[in-house]
Write a structure and sequence with these properties.
alpha+beta, Butyryl-Coa Dehydrogenase, subunit A, domain 1, Butyryl-CoA Dehydrogenase, subunit A, domain 2, Butyryl-CoA Dehydrogenase, subunit A, domain 3, 3 domains, 4-stranded mixed β-sheet, 4-stranded antiparallel β-sheet
Length: 379
């Protein structure tokens, strides 16, 4: 594939860059954080994003979306990453709507997807139960009581779970604790009896709720996909979400690099610009090389989804491992080259490292994906 954008994709990227720069600079994120905003993101700005079509980029036209590709959504997320914009695109579009697109019935899609495309609905996928990413590690049970199921268990790290209008919950209907088979996905009303939601805030000030389910009754008609085959829905959804998250990570790395290079051009020490110091030039070149490699990997990974290639899972792990390494190096080098000011909250550069740290553990860290990559390649 050609690792370039066509005219329409470049226009989308430019428009997204201008919108984010004008409406959601880093100061916007700071305000949400410092005021302890109850939602964690601006509903007004997210509504404007939806009006631009961003929430419906990958949703088919028959359900009110634009019917475009994941490459286009990745370009939007990359620009959001540059300005650390808090938004529910990952939780709602990639995870929630992704599960509906992959395993939902036509009735379920018609009922929920149009409101997602319009920016009116926030969805959340509750699938994690441990401190480490392990999608098949499901202890939550779903006992069949005739025409309904009763869910019992606990979920952690549920992105935007505290504001979701609908939850998608993984529960075990058969098999052992870590079996791939036997997992079933359920649509759950967060206001249903027995659902307890506790908001949690990550190091980057984003949302990740903890959810307890105690005898929550769910109708059989609210199952997504087939009973016991939830992993067949989760696997492709998580791969796509992982790849799109790496696009956001690429954006934050790019901005951290640009900010650092600008600082090297303006900061004076010993009566000379620090950008003239050869040691700092070498370190800046290392950051640049990391970014160039990352751009190619992310673009290829996004294209693998839209081209319906067989190596999507492999590309997801390759991209996440690559971008985790790049983000770790670039953001930490950025802070070090800023010196003391880089360690203060007053300067934005430290916020990029915090977001990088949160992204690193979301959907599996580099070690997890290197192991998965090797397994998928037959090693």
């Amino acid at each position: 594939m050609a690792l370039t954008l066509n005219a329409e994709q470049q226009m989308l990227k430019d428009n997204a860059k201008e919108f984010v720069r004008s409406n959601a600079p880093v100061s916007h994120m700071r305000k949400l954080r410092d005021t302890k905003d109850a939602t964690g993101f601006s509903s007004d700005i997210y509504g404007q994003m939806a009006e631009l079509g961003w929430a419906g980029i990958v949703i088919p036209e028959e359900y009110g979306g634009l019917g475009l590709g994941y490459l286009e959504l990745g370009l939007v997320l990359e620009e959001c990453g540059r300005n650390l914009v808090p938004q529910p695109l990952v939780s709602t579009v990639l995870l929630g709507a992704g599960c509906l697109l992959e395993g939902g019935s036509d009735a379920q899609k018609k009922d929920i997807l149009p409101s997602v495309a319009e920016g009116e609905a926030v969805l959340a996928l509750a699938f994690e139960e441990s401190r480490r990413f392990s999608p098949y590690n499901v202890k939550t049970t779903a006992d069949n009581s005739g025409s309904a199921y009763k869910l019992n268990g606990q979920k952690t790290f549920v992105l935007d779970g505290h504001v979701a209008g609908k939850l998608i919950v993984s529960a075990r209907t058969s098999g052992e604790e870590r079996d791939r088979d036997g997992i079933t996905l359920f649509l759950v009303d967060p206001k249903a009896g027995g659902v307890k939601i506790e908001r949690s805030t990550m190091v980057d000030s984003r949302n990740a709720a903890n959810i307890t389910l105690e005898g929550v009754e769910v109708a059989a008609g609210d199952i997504l996909g087939e009973v016991g085959k939830g992993a067949d829905v989760l696997d492709p959804v998580l791969d796509r979400a992982t790849i799109c998250l790496t696009a956001e990570m690429l954006g934050l790395c790019s901005q951290a690099y640009d900010t650092t290079v600008e600082y090297l051009k303006t900061r004076v020490q010993f009566d000379v610009l620090i950008g003239t110091f050869q040691a700092l030039q070498h370190r800046a070149v290392d950051m640049f090389c990391q970014l160039e490699l990352s751009k190619s990997v992310v673009l290829d990974a996004l294209s693998s989804i839209d081209d319906d290639r067989e190596d999507v899972a492999i590309m997801a792990s390759a991209a996440k491992a690559r971008l985790t390494d790049a983000a770790r190096l670039v953001t930490r080098e950025a802070i070090q080259m800023h010196g003391g000011i880089g360690m203060t909250d007053e300067h934005d550069i430290g916020l990029y490292m915090k977001r990088s740290a949160a992204c690193e553990l979301t959907f599996g860290d580099a070690s997890y994906h290197r192991d998965r990559f090797a397994t998928l390649k037959g090693f």
